[in-house]
Design a protein that fits this description.
The complex is a heterodimer of chains A (212) and B (196). With 212 residues, chain A is mostly helical. Chain A is built from nine helices and no strands. The longest helix of chain A has 26 residues. The chains are: A mainly alpha (212), B mainly alpha (196).
Chain lengths: 212, 196
């Protein structure tokens, strides 16, 4: 077929676009995923009983707020990676999260006696944490990847990894209100590991499912 | 590099943005003008990337134009159009080159697909074609059959399928590209079997 004919055909096939189409798709995928994750969480995890102290305790507060901020930044970054030549300021802001974690860990190391470090790091629920966060992230990751099929990522693996980062961080946020660990040494290590694992899985899935 | 070039780039960018904005609101004339305007630029980019003469890159260009069409919602008003379209062209060129490296003789423009022409008089070719068409979805296979084999027009086929002629032509283009890829894969498979 001749290119001019193709252009004419494409022109005759044109339909008006709804505004913010891709954003709405991603928001819908995220929302559907969050509903699934919340249902799972209420059914199998539940909120810890002494949560009231969360706002007064900086370390406890950060356990929920840091992943929440990370999830939001990852979503902005995601919206950029899903579009050709897409850009977002969130890409740079996201480095604030590891920075904040390092500061928090350093503060904890200073205020905790050295012989208490291993116990704080080990906590009581490494396995639960490493299983729960990935499991809770599954509905969100599925929702995001499904929405991203409508996108056009230049680097499908990167786009999938960012979706995994967002899904993992959102799952960590939800899990944090169940988790009984209070030490930043614990969550800075194991939450991060779990979220990065989800990002890795997202990258692999993206490589295969986000091609266009 | 010079002010003049910079200025030209900026006015072109503005024109594209306003055409595409118009197109996204449903303006067909603006859309066709946008595609016609950007096609030569894309052709240059694709040729530079794939290192083949421009004529050979026409099939990739057509894939890029279809991709721009299908992904036009990924351009955000306020962001530059050029880099967006060039990124799509780069992605599709790399994609096509990766495919052609895996299958050295793949042809995307289905017009060289001899099997379709042979099918009308050669019974083995007809059987082969049937098998390949079976791997396409039903609508695509029907469109290829009716237009390529029975010589009907896109308008006629569109009426029976309830599609616009444009949509039929785009579907035909995609089906033929897919069919050529299938045919080449099939050939490689067969020659592989023959070697064993």
């Amino acid at each position: 077929m001749n290119t001019d004919d193709l252009i004419k055909s494409l022109g005759s096939e044109l339909t008006p676009l709804p505004r913010g189409y891709l954003t709405r798709q991603i928001a819908t995928g995220l929302l559907a995923g969050l509903v699934g994750t919340s249902a799972l969480f209420v059914a199998f995890w539940g909120v810890r009983s002494d949560l009231i102290g969360i706002v007064s305790d900086l370390a406890l507060f950060a356990k929920t707020v840091l992943p929440l901020v990370l999830a939001c930044l990852a979503l902005f970054w995601l919206h950029a990676t899903a579009r050709p030549a897409g850009r977002s300021g969130a890409t740079r802001l996201i480095w604030g999260i590891p920075l904040a974690l390092i500061l928090l860990v350093a503060m904890t190391l200073v205020t905790t006696p050295g012989d208490a470090w291993p116990m704080a790091l080990r906590g009581k629920s490494i396995v639960t944490c490493l299983i729960s966060i990935p499991v809770l992230s599954v509905p969100i990751l599925i929702g995001l990847l499904a929405a991203l099929r409508r996108g056009a990522p230049e680097h499908p693996a990167l786009c999938g990894a960012v979706a995994g980062l967002g899904a993992g961080a959102a799952a960590a946020t939800v899990y944090s209100v169940y988790c009984i660990e209070n030490s930043p040494l614990f969550y800075a290590s194991w939450y991060s590991l779990a979220v990065l694992a989800v990002a890795g899985c997202g990258g692999i899935l993206g490589y295969f499912f986000l091609r266009w | 590099m010079t002010d003049e070039l910079d200025d030209m780039g900026r006015t072109r960018e503005d024109r594209w943005a306003s055409l595409l904005r118009d197109a996204n609101a449903g303006g067909r004339a603006s859309y066709v003008q946008f595609l016609n305007d950007i096609a030569p630029v894309l052709r240059g980019i694709i040729a530079a990337r794939c290192g083949r003469p421009k004529e050979d890159c026409e099939d990739i260009l057509q894939n890029v134009l279809i991709a721009i069409h299908e992904k036009r919602h990924t351009w955000r008003d306020g962001e530059p159009v050029g880099p967006w379209a060039y990124a799509i062209a780069r992605y599709k060129t790399v994609d096509a080159m990766r495919l052609s490296m895996r299958r050295p003789t793949v042809s995307y423009d289905g017009t060289e697909l001899d099997i379709v022409d042979e099918a009308s008089h050669d019974p083995t070719a007809a059987a082969d074609l049937d098998r390949l068409l079976g791997k396409l979805d039903a609508t695509s296979a029907l469109i290829v059959r009716q237009i390529r084999l029975e010589g009907r027009t896109a308008e006629e086929v569109g009426r029976t399928l309830g599609m616009t002629p444009g949509a039929v032509r785009v579907a035909l283009h995609r089906a033929m590209a897919k069919l050529s890829a299938l045919a080449v894969a099939d050939q490689t498979e067969q020659s592989g079997k023959a070697r064993e």
